[in-house]
TrEMBL record:
Protein keywords: Cytoplasm, Fatty acid biosynthesis, Fatty acid metabolism, Lipid biosynthesis, Lipid metabolism, Magnesium, Metal-binding, Transferase
SUPFAM superfamilies: 4'-phosphopantetheinyl transferase
Organism from which the protein derives: Hydrogenimonas cancrithermarum
Entry cofactors: Mg(2+)
Protein name: Holo-[acyl-carrier-protein] synthase
Length: 122
């Protein structure tokens, strides 16, 4: 399953200027907020969470919220994500991958989620 999302960085930057950290708390966990140093990163995290939700086929809503997805970085700075164990079990997720990029005023993210062939679809 693949999900893609693209965000205009200026939109995120405007929300940050207007609402500050309150805006970040709307969609990021404390650990994620500590990783955000620039609007580009915040926009990339927004796009990543949307891409992950699209890959699962749920979208952001009652089944999967922004705070259910945790974005982290490995020792080389590459992003990866974690999902609640109940979702991992429900979708029989065996591996995941995440890529985030920003350029030309946009942030884009691609999420890939591999599940076993007998995964339940809701």
């Amino acid at each position: 399953m693949i999900g893609v999302d693209i965000v205009v960085i200026d939109r995120i930057e405007s929300s940050l200027q207007k609402h500050g950290e309150k805006f970040l708390r709307r969609y990021l966990l404390e650990e994620e907020i500590s990783l955000v140093k620039r609007a580009e990163t915040a926009a990339g995290f927004w796009a990543a969470k949307e891409a992950i939700a699209k890959a699962l086929g749920t979208g952001i809503g009652s089944e999967l919220g922004f705070h259910d997805i945790k974005i982290e970085k490995d020792e080389k700075g590459a992003p990866f994500f974690r999902l609640p164990s109940d979702l991992v079990k429900r979708y029989k997720i065996v591996s995941t991958s995440l890529s985030i990029a920003h350029d030309g005023g946009f942030a884009i993210a691609v999420a890939a989620i591999e599940s076993s062939p007998t995964a339940d679809k809701m």
